[in-house]
Design a protein that fits this description.
Length: about 100
């Protein structure tokens, strides 16, 4: 996808230290962006509301992918309500190929 000018980053509610440990342990080679207040997660409509705000799990996003073009416009949103499901790679590749 790099030939299409596509980069990958993940937004999670975990602290930068937690994300650094996780990316090191699993050899993740794309940016993991920390959103501890879940403000971006909420603004993007990805907040999973099934977690009680008084628990440490509040702020967990739905698993998903946003396709954002070079001018910052969201051109595609793929989100799943079940944390065990992920958007299909075929769908993502097709959407990337359709980006203008």
């Amino acid at each position: 996808m790099q030939s299409k000018g596509v980069n990958v980053a993940a937004v999670l509610y975990d602290s930068p230290a937690t994300l650094a440990r996780f990316s090191g342990k699993y050899e993740i080679n794309f940016p993991l962006l920390s959103d501890p207040e879940s403000s971006a997660i909420i603004q993007l409509g990805l907040l999973n509301p099934t977690y009680d705000p008084s628990t440490k799990y509040y702020g967990v996003p739905y698993p998903g992918v946003l396709l954002i073009n070079s001018t910052g416009i969201i051109k595609g949103k793929f989100a799943e309500e079940n944390y065990r499901e992920r958007p299909l790679m075929e769908e993502l590749i097709r959407a990337v190929n359709e980006l203008d």
